[in-house]
Design goal:
Number of helices: 4
Strand content: 5-15%
Strand order of the largest sheet: 1-2
Helix content: 55-70%
Distance between the termini: 15 Å
Shape: globular
């Protein structure tokens, strides 16, 4: 079962924006701080949530499943 973790807000913002920079602006964080939050979450749970490229990010299959559960949890 997924428990609320404040980093979920960051992950959802990145998924919705498709970019760490845009999500950081939305959340009033530095891009570095946001990337550290997401990477820390990925490392802690052994997941890869985003496929990263020079054109932005997109959710992996694991990321899509997490986002669905996280949105339900936050509601």
């Amino acid at each position: 079962m997924l428990m609320y973790d404040r980093r979920l807000d960051a992950i959802i913002a990145v998924a919705e924006c498709g970019s760490f920079n845009q999500a950081a602006r939305r959340l009033h964080l530095s891009a570095t701080a946001l990337i550290k939050q997401v990477t820390g979450f990925e490392n802690e749970y052994g997941l890869t949530l985003f496929a990263r490229s020079s054109n932005g990010v997109r959710l992996t299959t694991s990321g899509q499943a997490l986002i669905e559960d996280a949105k339900d949890l936050i509601r």
